[in-house]
Amino acid sequence: MATAATLHAHAPQGFIRKYIFSLDHKVIGIQYFFLALTAVFVGMFLSLLMRIHMVWPTAAIPLIGEIKPETYLSLLTMHGTIMVFFVLTTAPQGGFGNYFLPIQIGAPDMAFPVLNMLSFWTTFVAFMVMLAAFFVTGGAPLHGWTGYPPMSAVQSAGPGEGLGADLWITSIAIFCIASLMGALNFITTTLDLRAKGMTLMRMPLTVWSWFITAILGLLAFGVLLSAGILLLMDRNLGTSFYVPLIVVNGQVLGHKGGSPLLWQHLFWFFGHPEVYIAILPGMGVASQVLSTFSRKPIFGYRAMVYAMLSIGFFGFMVWGHHMFMSGMSPYSAFAFSILTMCIGVPSAIKTFNWLGTMWKGRIRFHTPMLYAIGFVSLFVSGGLSGPFLAQPVLDIQLHDTYFVVGHFHLIMGVAAIFGIFAATYYWFPKMFGRMMNETWGRIHFFITLAGTYAIFMPMHYLGMAGQTRRYSQFTEVAYQTKLLPLQTFMTYAAIITIAAQFIFVINLFWSMFKGPKASDNPWECTTLEWTTTTPPPHDNFGGHTPVVNHGPYEYGVPGAARDYVMQNDPATAPAH
Amino acid sequence: MATYSTTHVDTTQLGRGGRTPDPPVLGGGDDGSNGGVPNYGQRLRRARLGLVVLIAPIVMLFVSLTSAYIVRQGLPTFDSTTNTYVRDWGEVNLPWILLAINTAVLLVSSLTMEGARRGITRQAALAPVRSIPGVSLGDEKAFPWLGITVVLGLGFLLGQWLAWKELANRGFFIATNPNSSFVYLLTGTHAIHLAGGIIALLWAAAASLRRTPVESRRIVIDIAAWYWHFMALLWLYVFALLEFAR
Cβ–Cβ of B32/A194 closer than 8 Å? Predict the structure, then answer.
């Protein structure tokens, strides 16, 4: 590519071209990473406020004061939205995917560098628009991250449903466009820029996971965009796509005949693949890290690839399991239920392959490995409640309770976050040229693991006991008051876990400047990013393209000089 | 076990999933080591692949709008005056002669776009010959295919705008009934995507003014042309949906 050739021969000079409007996928990846880091702190702070309000509803919080019930709903909405879109979608795919997908396939950059830059800055604009919702009249919207109409479609439905809700929808529409641009780049890059010898079945599982995630995003975000357009029209142009004849505060609104269920179908057709958009990159990272630190080839490479492909495929056919409560036909519910349980099969394949990878391995318990093991643990404990919720009869009982909150936080929230942590500790040396502190990494891991289990496991019991979700406080309801001690315990656990995240942030920034210098391949890995210098040069491989002769996970090779064979090592095999 | 040599590299496994390696001329590949000679064939292939990937979400957008269209069409609404469920889809009196003219304009523009694409493809193919000193291929008078396409594209948008005005004159506004909402929504969404195509064409025209190499311009025009054909097809689909599935 002419532009690429000229671009890479001369790295851009000047702060703005180099660090702000950079075309370099590595800089863009780091920009995405810090955007997500900012977002995760905003989202975490909101969850802290919610947890405090739930158990001490009248507590006066410094600078904020007492949280009103409607403010609780704003916090709930913004916590969910920011975490799902700007953390779980942004960090694993936009951040690490951008940085490492081109290097791992031996490419000098993404296929369309300008588009890549636009995709980041569009995401940035979306984030700013989202945050702006806090500061307009009425504040942030109340309708939850799923934005169900008629609440989300009616301006007069509540204090945050005016301009705040419009900003919320606009932000998501902008985010859709940014994600589509990113997905386009990821897919084209994976298909067209692989180095010689990098066949599809030699790609690291991380690349597979980013590739499949990009396909899911490509097909899902267009649907969310269309749903958002209809919602904006209902809100501002008086159409009736979603809103039926409705009376708000004694006033009959002009809408007629719309269906809130239409939104639910469109939203969840996006929303379920979105769950896999969040978790698939984590699966890729876990596979990569478990294989590396067990010093063993990944167990069942092809099975892992096909499992991810089938998870992605089934992910588009199960959106109805979010809607068992909507009064759908039992026949549809049955079909959605069976298809949902089908996802258990590839998920189990992946879990057993991870365990098989560790089995009898010479495990090195570095921080990335701890997080990868933690990911598997959370994936199992969060995933096992899935088949329960996939039963319509059980779901109708459990749907609006804390059981569901515990389920999705463990599997798509914390498991995906553990994937991000594993990726951060694992790739930090390559990205910033220094090592992170191991001791503090381990302390951070153990507090976070214990803390997240302490927060989210009790939610399952609360749910089974019938504690409703989305309620701003439980102190006024007799039977719910009985469950308050457990809620209080969870709030304390949350405070400790959130405090522990500062260990991570301090470790991150301290290591960036003061950590010991990292070698080119500190973990003794096999994939291409570890063949280049640390940090990689502007064109990734210093003027040449690697030639790939090996699969991605050749660890513990008998007879080899080292216990691993890098992907670009010469194709000669040692004599046996 | 005997020693075996694995220096043999399975060439069917090389590069881009089984594509045989590029000939060593100019280095090949996208490694920046080809002495600054751009590989236009590879760029064209990459851009076309990108376009195919781009079309997927646009298709998904219209698939999802279509499913909303069909679902909304079938929804009964409660009528409190008669205490029964009635269909509230409503009717729209489409200005179909005007829309048929617009369709014709767009289809003709698709043909002129194809003319532009073939013209630039021929020019790009002849460029190496032309660059030989002393070789003249005669002064080919370039027919302004691209300019005509832009004019026709703008004509289509103008026609759509007139159609919206006509709809409003006939008393069908965006919130009149669900049917009219969808008419505006589908035609509007298509118009926005077509406007993107016009911007691509203007970009291509600007590239020719900036004396970009013909091979490079060819890529822009090639991509814009396939996108334009896709827009024509998409319009036929939208028009058919509004006309036959109302």
Answer: no
Same fold yes or no, A18-258 and A328-509: yes
A interface test, pick of B6, B30, B58, B183 with most A CB neighbours within 10 Å:
B30
Domain residue limits, chain A: 18-258, 328-509, 515-576
- Judged by CB atoms closer than 8 Å, whether chains meet at B88 and A257 is answered as yes
Tell me the percentage of chain A whose pLDDT exceeds 90.
85
pLDDT of residue B131: 75
Of B18, B68, B175, the CB nearest to A238: B175
Contact status, residue A456 vs residue A418, Cβ threshold 8 Å? no
Give the DSSP letter string of A425-437.
HHHHHHHHSBPPP
CA Rg value for chain A: 24
Would you say the C-alpha torsion A349, A354, A360, A361 has a positive or negative sign?
positive
**3-state class (DSSP) for residue A411:** helix
Please tell me the distance in Å from B180's CA to the nearest CA on chain A: 9
Assess contact for A277 and A176: CB atoms under 8 A.
Answer: no
- Residue with the bigger pLDDT between A32 and A249: it is A32
Of A1, A221, A229, the CB nearest to B30: A1
pLDDT band, residue A63 (cuts 50/70/90):
confident
Q: For residues A291 and A357, is the Cβ–Cβ distance under 8 A?
A: yes
Considering only the beta carbons, identify the residue of B15, B57, B72 that sits closest to A241.
B72
Does B124 or A148 have the greater pLDDT score?
A148
Interface contact B3-A576, CB threshold 8 A: yes
CA nearest B40: which of B209, B202, B196, B221?
B221
**Which is it for strands A564-565 and A554-555: parallel, antiparallel or unpaired?**
antiparallel
Residue A191 has its nearest CB partner, among B33, B49, B56, at B49
Which pLDDT band, with edges at 50, 70 and 90, does B139 fall under?
Answer: low
Contact A338, A413 (CB under 8 A): no
The pLDDT assigned to A475 comes to 76
Q: Does domain B43-133+141-244 have CATH number 3.40.30.10?
A: no
Reduced to 3 states (helix: H, G, I; strand: E, B; else coil), residue B78 is: strand
The distance of A572 to chain B (nearest Cα, Å) reads 5
pTM attached to this predicted model: 0.92
Second-level CATH architecture of A18-258: Up-down Bundle (1.20)
What is the rounded CA–CA span in Å between residue A255 and residue A233? Answer: 12
Nearest to A184 among B5, B8, B54 (CB): B54
B214 contacts in chain A (CB < 8 Å): none
Q: Which of residues 41-100 of B touch A (CB under 8 A)?
A: 42-43, 45-46, 49-50, 53-54, 56-61, 63-65, 67-68, 71-72, 75, 77-78, 80, 88
- Tokens 């457990």: give the residue: A486
- For residues A320 and A331, what is the distance between their CA atoms, to the nearest angstrom? 11
| pLDDT tens per residue, range A109-123 | 999 999 999 999 999
Domain covering A328-509, topology: Cytochrome C Oxidase; Chain A (1.20.210)
